[in-house]
Each structure stands twice: as C-alpha cells, then as structure tokens.
Specification:
Elements: H1 2-18, H2 39-48, E1 56-60, H3 66-73, E2 78-83, H4 86-98, E3 105-109, E4 122-125, H5 129-142, E5 148-152, E6 163-167, E7 176-182
Parallel strand pairs: 1-2, 1-4, 2-3, 4-5
Antiparallel strand pairs: 5-7, 6-7
Helix pairs in contact: 2-3
C-alpha cells in the first residue's frame, strides 16, 4: 500500500510539474490614472493622426479600449492597446469580442515601456507629462520615419508638435488640447 501511494504521489508530481504556468503579470509602474477619454475626443485624436484603413496604431495605456475599438471599427485600422491594469484588459478584450473585432483589435496586458512599436503608423497617448518623458526615448529609438504620435492634454517634453488643436468643449463641459508629432 505504501509503495502504491509513493508511486501515485510521484506521478502527480510529474504531471503537475509539467502543467504550463500562467504568465506572470507584467511589472511596471502605472504611468497615469485611468481617466476615460470622451468619445468625441477619441474621434478627434484619430482624425488628427490621419489614421487610414489598414494602418497599424497603438494606444499606450489603453484603459477600457475605446480608442482601439474606434480605430478598428470606424477607421478599419489594425489597432493595439497596451494596458497594465488586468481588470481593464479583461473589460476591453470582452468588448472587442462582443463587437466581433478580434481580427483587427487587441489589447496587450503589459508595460508600455517594454513593448515594440516599430510597426506603428500612429501612436496615441494620454499620459502625464513625466510619463511622456519616460516613453519618449522608446518611441525615438523604435518608430520609423513618418510615424504620427497624438498626445492628449499633455505635451511630450523635448518634442515640438507640428500641430496643436484646442477643443473648447467636448460635449461634457471640458476642454482638451491635442498635440500631433511626426517622427
């Protein structure tokens, strides 16, 4: 009986040791609080960035996925969000699935400072000024010539925008400023 228990225990150890582990959650600090961009501003950001069908865009700190979803749904772009908050990743991924956009929209559960953006035609960001400074060298080293970056409300320090748009009222009584950069 003891031998039988020993063999069963050993087999269980082997089986469980070979079970694939879930990936560890991404590490990194939160670079901005979650504050959803109004839909009217989302559309203005994508318009300002001149997003075209078939282009690839990344939204850094994608929150509930609204920019990614509009980019895929309205602009027919390949849209990728990067989000560190697992609950927001689950929520936005569910919405993408619900809308049937899985072929053109996805959310990466990860740190925006550890991604590859070299395939981007457009980057959208709604980060705090210090966070924009942290992201800047990554974008400078990875983005191809002509890639557009649209920053919402906060400039990217050290860069000069080619265009600045002020929206006095988003329909909810709040003003916004958008900054367009071209690498």
């Amino acid at each position: 009986m003891f031998l039988r228990l020993l063999i069963i225990s050993a087999l269980c150890s082997i089986v469980f040791a070979q079970t694939p582990q879930e990936p560890a959650p991404p590490t990194g600090e939160k670079l901005a609080p979650y504050y959803p961009t109004p839909e009217t501003i989302v559309d203005r950001m994508l318009e300002l960035g001149e997003l075209k069908a078939g282009e690839k865009m990344f939204d850094l700190g994608s929150g509930d996925g609204r920019i990614v979803i509009m980019a895929a749904r309205k602009y027919h772009a390949e849209a990728v969000g990067v989000e560190l908050d697992n609950d927001l990743v689950i929520q936005s991924t569910a919405k993408i699935r619900e809308l049937g956009l899985q072929k053109t929209a996805k959310i990466i559960y990860g740190d925006i400072l550890k991604q590859n953006y070299s395939s981007a035609n457009l980057i959208t960001i709604y980060l705090l000024p210090d966070s924009n400074i942290l992201v800047r060298p990554i974008l400078e080293s990875q983005l191809k010539k002509g890639t557009r970056i649209v920053a919402h409300d906060f400039e990217v320090g050290g860069w000069t925008p080619v265009k600045t748009v002020t929206i006095p009222d988003d329909g909810e009584g709040r003003s916004h400023t958008l900054f367009l950069y071209i690498r």
